[in-house]
Amino acid sequence: MAKTRTYKLGCPIARALDRVGDRWTLLILRDLHAGPGRFTELQKGLTGIAANLLTDRLTKMTSDDLIEKTQEKHGAVLYQLTQTGMRTSSLLFELAQFGRQFPLQGEISRPGNLRTLAATLGTACQRAVTSNTRLEVSILVDGENFLLIANSGQAELTYQAATNPDLELKTSYDAMVALTDGKITFEKFAAEECEFKVHTKGKEFEFMALMTAALEQLQG
């Protein structure tokens, strides 16, 4: 049974923290913004979390209507965000912006999977996308698939393979982190840190425009 803790305060910040303030909760939300995930997938991505603690957090998050359980065709349980959980995208984005001002401390562990990349970059793309952008991009990061779809003023970056992309991009996790942290420019990233394959002529310029605007959101 998940433990119920509360500040017992009427302040809306305290009421929010009653639901998302426990250790690991925001990181679980972060990873689920990349799309639905199995328990084992979430545990693998959250390096260091024990199975019983993840179970506890998922149980409480379900009772708080932040996530819900669904089933794949073959019966495997998936966890996915509810509409309430989806509303944490801006919260996570602003928290990432706040966190960038602080230096790294100690030995840093690489995540067990790269779902972590989707939350802030996806929100930045959503904030930057224009109504004229229509684009499907396959992004392969150290062998892990992401799908960026932009259409009619909406943009979404999810942890899955593309079926019919306008272009494909292949890069590394280190290069993506350097790009989103502002350590390298998009021009340097495009020229030296990734491979492009264009299937729909001209869409590479739409992608470059969207990414440039998204990086301004991330670094602004």
From TrEMBL:
A Pfam family:
HxlR
UniProt KW Endoplasmic reticulum keyword: no
Task: List the InterPro entries.
Answer: HTH_HxlR, WH-like_DNA-bd_sf, WH_DNA-bd_sf
A GO MF term: DNA binding
Q: Which UniProt keywords apply?
A: DNA-binding, Transcription, Transcription regulation
Query: Any keyword DNA-binding?
Result: yes
Q: Kindly list the residue ranges recorded as spanning the membrane.
A: none
The residue ranges of the HTH hxlR-type domain are 11-107
Name this protein carries in UniProt:
HTH hxlR-type domain-containing protein
**Taxon lineage:** Bacteria, Pseudomonadati, Pseudomonadota, Alphaproteobacteria, Rhodobacterales
